[in-house]
Amino acid sequence: MYFEIIEKAFWSGIVGFGFAVLFNVPKRLLLTILITALFAGLVKFGALANGINIIVASLFAASVVGFASVFLSRIMNTSPFVLSIPSVIGMIPGYFGYKTLLGIMHFALDTSPEIETTILLGIAHNGINMMFILASLSIGVSLPWLLFRKKGLEKITFSHHEDLV
Fold it and tell me: Cα(121)–Cα(47) distance, rounded to whole angstroms?
């Protein structure tokens, strides 16, 4: 079990490294991105192995990357998002998106009313999982940046002097 988690974490690091190269990230940051993606994989697959839901596991992993990116960005003199986005992009739920679109195609092509309910439930299940995983990734990456940045959350709230119309 531990070897499987380490192997998946290793490949998560390679995926993060590959996306960093595709995004033309400076060479001095590639090793840092590989390590943060590897730790994200360790957290996500370790949580999944312990029975935690994939949505919560993705939130934990993205939060680890977000906090590490805020800390490491000061050391590496770069934006936290340059470190965090390539590290978590491998966790984007392509499987659930694929299954959702495949279900939509089956629903459009199938004419039997007995199977329609099953297909619609599958589409809804996979689509909702996909949306919540994407939301957890974006929250996990951006929330630490907003919390640690000076006046980060204050910019989101409306002041009393702004016109809301």
Answer: 26
Give φ, ψ of 53 to 5 degrees. -60, 150
Whether 138 and 92 have beta carbons less than 8 Å apart is answered as: no
Please check whether residue 156 lies inside any domain of the structure.
no
Q: How many domains does the chain have?
A: 1
Range of 61's domain?
Answer: 2-148
Q: Is residue 153 part of a domain?
A: no
Interior CA angle at 117 toward 112 and 118, to 5°?
95
What's the pTM value of the predicted model, to 2 decimals?
0.83
Picking from 59, 69, 82, the residue whose alpha carbon sits closest to that of residue 134 is 59
Average pLDDT over residues 104-120: 86
CA distances from 31 to 26, 91, 117 (A): 10, 19, 48
Residue 162 lies in a domain: no
Report yes or no on 161 lying in a domain.
Answer: no
pLDDT digit string (tens) for 76-109? 999 888 999 999 999 999 999 999 999 999 998 8
Phi, psi for 157 (deg, rounded to 5): -75, 150
